[in-house]
């Protein structure tokens, strides 16, 4: 299936079955990890323990968010604006839900720190896209942007957890942009951290990554680097993704090296990398209604755009075009950040996301005539 195909829009998806994570998976002391099985697809989903979040999707005591709950009929008319509602069990006052989607070569671990930062605001989960992290390859071998978007849609449909606050980084940013365009009913707000939206030509420092799409390059790279120690491999990746790799603690570096070595030993590692890279390149060349920039213009959800001034994979200059494309957008510009701002500056990114969620909730209350207090001036206005 090519990325020119559109993800399903409202096809019913069977309920998912959850099982424990496989042995050897990296799970933080405050985290949970489970495997969710769907027909032809298994996804690893990372969350936080209930004693950390205060109990699943239950609210942590915010009367303001409780006031934002809507009935099903009310939500049908305002779902695109980010309406609060009961959780899947019908309880009132539940925290809104969030779903985090990682980038090329990454995993749900990329969101661990931000997910914890936002635990008081949202009931968050981070999934591993098919073939990445702890998720096995999809049965159909589809690693296109549309294929990954379909996996996200199927998970949200099967779990009954939409609409959610949807966050994506890099490849994940392109994926969730497509999700928001074709299934606005699933998205309350959209946060994009260095999204992989078409940039032609890409900046020079991104070419080595794009070259993975060329047949034979991945095999050649594997042969040239097979004797490299895990620390050298990991250092190269962090040097590419971080604005300042020195911000990574020795403990986090060691954990990243161990995780990378584990995943490098998976028989499908390079296949997932190569095919997903080709999927991004393919998406860059699409025209018409399937073009990612055209789909960005269709997004209804309020959108936070996060760009780093030291990003070597997505040029900061793209922020201007993104601000113009997303109809309801605001920009968080971090001059010293690289490609993974949510890992480098989690407190700052969390503050901007929290502001987006609260601002959207106030807009919904005003729309419903609930007389919310005037919104404060945003700290991260749209601009460049």
Describe this structure in words.
The protein has 384 residues and is of the alpha/beta class. The chain has a 9-stranded mixed sheet with strand order 1-2-3-7-6-8-9-10-11, sandwiched between helices. Strand 8, helix 6 and strand 9 form a beta-alpha-beta unit. Helix 5 crosses helix 6, helix 6 crosses helix 12 and helix 9 packs across helix 10. The chain is globular and about 65 Å long. The two termini are 37 Å apart. The N terminus and C terminus are likely disordered.
Quick gist of this model?
The protein is α/β, with parallel strands linked by helices. Helices cover 38% and strands 15% of the residues. α6 crosses α12 and α9 (230-241) crosses α10 (250-264).
Write the layout of secondary structure elements.
Elements: E1 17-20, E2 31-38, E3 41-48, H1 50-53, H2 63-66, E4 69-70, H3 72-78, E5 84-85, E6 97-101, H4 112-117, E7 123-127, H5 145-159, E8 164-169, H6 171-182, E9 187-193, H7 207-210, H8 217-225, H9 230-241, H10 250-264, H11 269-285, H12 292-298, E10 303-308, H13 318-325, E11 329-334, H14 341-344, H15 346-367
Parallel strand pairs: 4-5, 6-7, 6-8, 8-9, 9-10, 10-11
Antiparallel strand pairs: 1-2, 2-3, 3-7
Helix pairs in contact: 5-6, 6-12, 9-10
Features:
15 helices, disordered N terminus, 9-stranded mixed β-sheet, globular, two-stranded parallel ribbon, 384 residues, single chain, 38% helix
